[in-house]
Design a protein that fits this description.
Oligomer: homodimer
Strand content of chain A: under 5%
Largest interface: A-B, 63 and 63 residues
Low-confidence stretches of chain A: none
Number of strands of chain A: 0
Mean pLDDT of chain A: 93
Number of helices of chain A: 11
Order of helices and strands of chain A: HHHHHHHHHHH
Largest sheet of chain A: none
Structural class of chain A: mainly alpha
Distance between the termini of chain A: 55 Å
Radius of gyration of chain A: 20 Å
Chain lengths: 227, 227
DNA sequence: TCGTCAAGTGACTGAAGGTCATTTGTTCGC
DNA sequence: GCGAACAAATGACCTTCAGTCACTTGACGA
């Protein structure tokens, strides 16, 4: 069972997390269990009671660490998103020569290849997660997002000489839009997948996330270059 | 009160809708009330009991017309989406000369200007609506979507000579992705709006839907033209 | 060793989607 | 017109699930 290692991790902790580091460990454990359940199903199918069960905690305990289900998933998104930004930073930093549009497009699209959970959560951000969260919980997320956007945007502007000032961050705005939209089309619900598979003529409605993102980004960047 | 006219419309119907046309009228009435509530709030805040109340019906009656809340909103999306496709068809048909990329971008973006409900629902399609709907309910929607996509795509290919075969429909796939993503960023939840307004330095995270969609589409089309 | 305190618990609550036995308006044959 | 028959409408009831809170108990310091 997938929870075994996590359960072990939990049992390695004292039954009561009194030190800050133990609290942080328990918090991460809850996030890990939520992620495992989310990867196997969908947001609606993840029950807070199941998250608690897998973490070998009572339901009420989970609510000590996260005030709402939405706050829990916002925290999860935060972890995944900024880990991705950090990895992208590395990819952009390791080769400081001038890049081409297609190369950037491929790099970005491929960096998101195994990040289904991240991109699915991104699609939930404004429609679901921001619905039941306080401004206090949201502010730090938005602050970090802006900082990451500006940082990565600046790096991109340095790599692609044809980009004007401010177009780096905007590139990420459009990327966010495309990722959100394409993930929704590519990662269809089981019912939708069933429909598409049963009717071969609907094949054009099926979308390969990485391929489509790569071409869309390439085209977008070519449009910026030819000005 | 907004429900007055709809309530009148309902009372003009017989108490029991036995003829198909009466059933259809009652169905539309329910959709109208759901739309009114959705425009004023959010998906999660629209309660089936409120929809029923505004339509002057018992809750159980609404479930005679739509098996689930998701099915109701899928039907609403269907109405709005294909009405939009029809209007776009007209816009594309009324001038058969060659168009430019920027003109198409503007036309499309402006045609979506007042369609907040449509674009918001589009963002919910795969993450929420397809979650609690049967394949039988989804199939006709997908069929119509494909047909509309091919039709509009073909028209677009005729207007823009630089488009290759098959790129018309793909343009609409990317449009769908951009609309979904940008709407989410532009039409933020009240909490998110509060955060962004309280912190002026977060201004870059605010997105003007129509403006951003226009530039993104223009850039995308310019990328296709300069090949 | 024991008192204190906060972490942890799980029965309980409220809210909302969805069901169904019953009621009642409508229609149609006479 | 009348009433039997049918199906549309009803709303009390059921279920599920996020979220709460009075109570329990493990950890740690004195």
């Amino acid at each position: 069972m997938a929870s075994t290692s996590a359960a072990k991790a939990n049992r390695a902790l004292p039954q009561r997390a009194r030190k800050d580091e133990d609290k942080e460990a328990r918090r991460q454990l809850i996030l890990n269990e939520a992620l495992a359940l989310y990867q196997a199903t969908s947001y609606a199918e993840v029950k807070m009671a199941d998250v608690a069960g897998r973490a070998m905690l009572a339901k009420g305990t989970v609510f000590l660490y996260f005030p709402t289900k939405e706050a829990l998933f916002l925290a999860l998104l935060e972890d995944l998103l900024f880990a991705w930004f950090a990895r992208l930073d590395e990819l952009l930093a390791e080769d400081t020569s001038a890049w081409t549009g297609p190369r950037l497009a491929r790099t970005v699209a491929e960096s998101l290849e195994g990040e289904e959970a991240l991109t699915r959560l991104l699609a939930l951000l404004q429609t679901v997660l921001e619905q039941n969260v306080t401004a206090e919980q949201l502010r730090p997320f938005k602050e970090r997002l802006l900082a990451a956007l500006v940082r990565a945007g600046t790096l991109v502007e340095q790599r692609l000489s044809f980009l004007h000032a401010g177009e780096g961050p905007r590139f990420f705005i459009h990327l966010h839009a495309l990722v959100t939209g394409l993930r929704q089309m590519a990662d269809v619900a089981p019912v939708a997948r069933e429909v598409l598979e049963a009717l071969p003529h609907l094949a054009p409605l099926r979308v390969d996330f990485t391929a489509e993102l790569t071409t869309a980004l390439s085209t977008l960047l070519r449009g910026l270059e030819s000005r």
